[in-house]
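Try this one yourself first.
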């Protein structure tokens, strides 16, 4: 299965900064061959990014969305609005939304239902907090998050599903998880998807690692057969470091 590497810019970059980044990324598109590359700008930079990336192989993702199509939901952005810009992927349940903005499992579930309804590929984020890890609860937390998100969907409901394992303690700290941690999480994801939807779905789901990933450490993750890519924060903000990371991942994965 091919690698999928996504830039999550979080609350960084104006529209013109996004345009400059995407122009340069597109200029170097040939270097990225064989890897599915995705850029997730803030909502306010989607239009600028979409315009530059139109017709390229680089895909556009959103960092979040609301579950309703339209209505009195001040400040929210609907799946239809995202699709209007050519958005194909959406990050759902990022830990910053769960833990800073109070998004709960029920909201995440509704967002997944909306993604499914509108044919958007979800990048579902899961991950344990440091204290949960210290108490040996990592597996239980990941399983709870996954079950709340996925249980009850029909097998084959998602044409594509990406699960990003992002331990909260590794995000933005410079302290990445070990490849063994990521492997354990990926195995857990596939085991659970197999229980829910069977072995075909389990081998089709793609698992990314995220959390302080960079060009220097991506190789250890991408070399694992269980890991299919990365969700990249800080190292995705400069074109050079993002491309270096993609190239290192491709080399380690041998694709
Ligand atoms: P960093 O790569 O900055 O640790 O962020 C990871 C992340 O949260 C990506 O979604």
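Now uncover the answer:
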């Amino acid at each position: 299965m091919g690698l999928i590497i996504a830039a999550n810019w979080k609350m960084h970059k104006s529209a013109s900064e996004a345009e400059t980044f995407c122009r340069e990324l597109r200029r170097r598109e040939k270097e990225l061959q064989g890897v599915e590359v995705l850029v997730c700008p803030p909502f306010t930079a989607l239009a600028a990014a979409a315009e530059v990336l139109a017709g390229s192989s680089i895909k556009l993702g959103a960092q979040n969305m609301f579950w309703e199509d339209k209505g009195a939901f001040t400040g929210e952005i609907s799946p239809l609005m995202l699709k209007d810009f050519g958005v194909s992927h959406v990050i759902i349940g990022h830990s910053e939304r769960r833990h800073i903005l109070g998004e709960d499992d029920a909201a995440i579930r509704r967002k997944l239902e909306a993604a499914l309804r509108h044919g958007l590929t979800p990048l579902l984020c899961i991950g344990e907090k440091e204290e949960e890890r210290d108490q040996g609860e990592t597996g239980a937390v990941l399983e709870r998050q996954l079950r709340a998100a996925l249980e009850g969907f029909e097998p084959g409901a998602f044409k594509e599903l990406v699960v990003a394992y992002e331990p909260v303690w590794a995000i933005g700290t410079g302290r990445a998880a070990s490849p063994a941690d990521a492997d354990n999480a990926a195995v857990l994801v596939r085991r659970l998807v197999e229980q829910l939807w069977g072995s075909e779905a389990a081998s089709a789901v793609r698992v990314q690692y995220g959390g302080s990933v960079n060009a220097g450490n991506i190789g250890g993750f991408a070399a694992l057969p269980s890991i299919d890519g990365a969700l990249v924060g800080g190292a995705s903000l400069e074109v050079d470091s993002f491309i270096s990371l993609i190239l290192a991942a491709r080399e380690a994965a041998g694709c």
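Discussion: The pocket of 1,3-dihydroxyacetonephosphate is lined by residues 8, 94, 166, 171-172, 210-213, 231-235 (CB under 6 Å). The radius of gyration is 17 Å.
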